[in-house]
């Protein structure tokens, strides 16, 4: 399954080269570099990056660019903010659709039930289940407080 996402990224990179789409090409190269860096780090153990890890890398890249765009906007550097947001669009093409608020709440409730969580001490188990099933589909920064509120 790892190859599916890698293949899509590689194919898109080739298309961007043919179309001479410099902005998209640059972003796709950054994605490839991030994945290769992780591959190199895992090579010591004889592993390669899994599909879930690629999704996590992409999610992290989106979050970094959104934070940068916000900082650029606050600093009045709108052209740089636009460039960051354009990269977010390219990276997001490879991420699964984000869950709605209602879907996220249902997933959190299901995960709490699945692990039999009863207190805040079980939060790690609940988050582990959610990350296993929904990597790239929800913002775990906002899900954490939601889980905490339900268990607290």
What does this structure look like?
This is Glutamyl-tRNA amidotransferase. It holds the Pfam family YqeY. One of its GO terms (molecular function) is carbon-nitrogen ligase activity, with glutamine as amido-N-donor. This protein starts with a helix and ends with a helix. It has 152 residues and is an all-alpha fold. The protein has seven helices and no strands. The relative contact order is 0.10. The chain has helices at 2-19, 22-43, 51-74, 78-92, 101-115, 123-134, 140-151. The protein has two domains: 2-92, Hypothetical Protein Yqey, Chain: A, domain1, CATH 1.10.1510.10; 101-151, Arc Repressor Mutant, subunit A. Helix 5 (101-115) packs across helix 6. It is globular, with a radius of gyration of 18 Å.
Order of helices and strands: HHHHHHH
Tally of contiguous helical segments: 7
Please tell me what the overall shape is. Answer: globular
Task: Please state the second-level CATH architecture of the largest domain.
Answer: Orthogonal Bundle
Portion in beta strands: under 5%
The H-level CATH homologous superfamily of the largest domain, spelled out, is Uncharacterised protein YqeY/AIM41, N-terminal domain
The percentage helix is over 70%
Q: Main sheet, how many strands, which sense, barrel? A: none
Backbone structural class: mainly alpha
Rounded to an integer, what's the Rg over CA atoms? 18 Å
Count the E strands: 0
Ranges where pLDDT stays below 50 over 5 or more residues in a row are none
Number of domains: 2
Mean pLDDT metric? 90
CATH topology name of the largest domain, in short, is: Hypothetical Protein Yqey, Chain: A, domain1
- The CATH class of the largest domain turns out to be Mainly Alpha
Distance between the termini: 38 Å
GO molecular function: carbon-nitrogen ligase activity, with glutamine as amido-N-donor
InterPro entries: Asn/Gln_tRNA_amidoTrase-B-like, GatB_Yqey_C_2, YqeY/Aim41, YqeY/Aim41_N
Pfam family, one: YqeY
Protein name: Glutamyl-tRNA amidotransferase
